[in-house]
Each structure stands twice: as C-alpha cells, then as structure tokens.
Design brief:
Helix content: 25-40%
Strand order of the largest sheet: 1-3-2-4-5-6-12
Structural class: alpha/beta
CATH topology of the largest domain: Rossmann fold
CATH superfamily of the largest domain: Response regulator
Length: 317
C-alpha cells in the first residue's frame, strides 16, 4: 500500500473539466477527502474512479485531498473547497460522518457525504453498504471450497456486518466448517493482518477472507505463497491470482458516487443515512476462479437472485 509522506498531505489537487459546458442542474464542483491515498488500488482508488466519472458526466471540476485524518485538516480542506465553488463533498470513510456533523453547520450550501456513519444534519448524508449478505455469500464460497473445513475472516473491526454474515454463510453451506474470526483493529495495519493470516494457515485454515481494504492485498499475496485460497474484498481482486482468489465481495463505490451525484444534481439526494445492498446493484460478487465448479456457481447465482427479489438468504426458513 502506498503511504503518504509527511504528517499530512495538504496540497490541493484539481482535475479540470476541459473547459466544456457544464450540465445544467444543482451540481457545481465536487470535492473528495481520503484518509490515506487514492492509489491504494482498493477503496481509495474506487472512490477516485467515481470522481472521474462524475467529472466526465457533468463537466465539473473535481478536487481531492489525501491524508485527511483529523478534524482540523478536514476543516481546512472544506474551507478551500468552498473557495473553489465546491457544493458536493465526499468524505471517503466512516470517520468523516462525525467531522461533517460538526463542520456542515458552517456551510449550509454544501452537501456533505460520508460512508457507514450517522449523518445528523440537513446537509449531511451517510452512505451505508449492507455488508451482511455480502459476507454471507463470501462465506458460502469459502466453506464450499475449503478442503480442511476450516475458513477464516480477518476483519478490521467487530462492528462490520460482513463478519457475522461470513460466519453464517459458511455454516449454511457446510455445518461442519470451523470459522476462525480475528480482528486487526485498523483498516490498514498490513503487518498485523499478515501475521494473523500466517497463524490461521498454520492452524489449518485454507480459505481466508481479509475484510479490510488497506491490508487485503498483502494478505492475498501471503496466502498465494502458501497455495491456499482467499475471498477478495471491496473490489474484484481476481487479477491477483485466479487460482488464489475464489471470488470477491464487491462494493461498487464508484457506481454509488455516480448515483449520488445524479441525485444531488437533480435535487433528489436525501439527507440522513441511506443503505445499499445487492438489490441496488452496488454490492455484487466478482469473477469466480476456474477452480470453483460450475454447478456451485449456478447455485450461488440463483441464491443471489432470490435474495435480490425476496430479501431471503439460503438459511432463511
């Protein structure tokens, strides 16, 4: 994972809209704040791709700042964005919900959007991915493919709904499967995550779900060295090894950015906490490894379609 240099990166970066006529609507310019970098190839990169699509669709200028990991630097960034006529700001993480709840009162003309938090003001919105079903289907694949009937999830925090989902999905597929659950306590502590993965594999775990965007790539590389399997997280990670990555649980962050920009431009974006799942086509499973048998893939596709139509998972009675 690419790390930023210095305590915090305060350089304002802008990508112009090529002097093309802007689309009519409420949207003027758009800002993005990320706690680390847009070059992590996972969470940050997907947010940045969403910004580029907004720029292309609406012919607006987009600005972004990296290393935005405290209320003080976020407040300074918002002030700069305001001076650039930005009226829609994305905070690319759960930490921004709390910052925006405080800062947004000073900028009633700006809409503040964060992820997986609690938006409390009229001009704040929190986008929440429903992770339970995502984890459930990932757990099914892991359990089905485990030769030792031992799978593991390395999550960042206990509150992640995909943790319980993964556990229940693994048992729904095979009741005899043992599920090892470990927590990193951070989204990006790669060293600890890799250590946990090594301990899991030493204990017989042969499929691991690294549910943390900042460390899942190093974990996947470590698992690949041992010849075991993983379930990818946030983005389709099949390119890291089709015989290692069985499938991926994908959050289509870039597509959600486009949807939010459209709703805001049309004056239809709601305040408060909004939730999204498979039914909204922003949560999906990725490409399957050729090692996964086609009969099981058909079963998975049918289960996902049933969930999208009825809200019922395979273990529902």
């Amino acid at each position: 994972m690419i790390k930023r240099f210095g305590v915090v990166l305060l350089i304002l970066l802008v990508l112009g809209a090529c002097s093309q006529p802007k689309s009519t609507g409420k949207l003027r310019n758009v800002g993005l704040l990320v706690p680390e970098t847009v070059n992590d190839q996972v969470w940050g990169t997907k947010g940045f791709k969403g910004m580029l699509k907004i720029q292309s669709d609406y012919k607006v200028d987009i600005f972004y700042k990296e290393g935005m990991n405290s209320e003080a630097v976020v407040e300074r960034a918002v002030k700069e964005f305001d001076q650039k006529d930005v009226n829609l700001i994305f905070g690319h993480g759960s930490e921004y919900a709390e910052y925006f709840n405080k800062i947004s009162k000073k900028y009633p003309h700006i809409q503040f959007v964060s992820f997986n938090g609690d938006a409390k003001n009229a001009n704040t919105t929190s986008l929440n991915f429903k992770g339970y079903a995502m984890g459930f289907f990932g757990g099914m694949v892991a359990s089905h493919m485990s030769k030792n009937h031992k799978v593991g999830i390395i999550a960042a925090y206990e509150w992640q709904p995909e943790v319980e989902g993964f556990y229940q999905g693994a048992l729904a597929e095979e009741k005899q499967t043992a599920v090892d659950i470990q927590y990193v306590g951070s989204w990006d502590d790669s060293k600890k995550a890799v250590q946990l993965a090594e301990k899991m594999m030493q204990s017989g775990v042969d499929v691991i779900y690294p549910a943390g965007d900042g460390y899942n790539v190093p974990v996947i590389e470590k698992v690949k060295e041992k010849g075991y399997y993983v379930i990818g997280y946030v983005s389709d990670q099949s390119d890291l090894g089709e015989t290692t990555v069985l499938t991926s649980t994908i959050q289509q962050v870039d597509a959600l950015y486009e949807k939010v920009a459209k709703d805001y431009n049309d004056g239809k974006l709601k305040s408060g906490n909004l939730s999204f799942d498979f039914q909204d086509d922003v949560v999906t499973l990725g490409k399957y490894s050729p090692l996964v048998d086609k009969k099981f893939i058909r079963k998975m596709n049918k289960s996902i379609e049933t969930y999208k139509q009825t809200g019922k998972l395979p273990n529902s009675q």
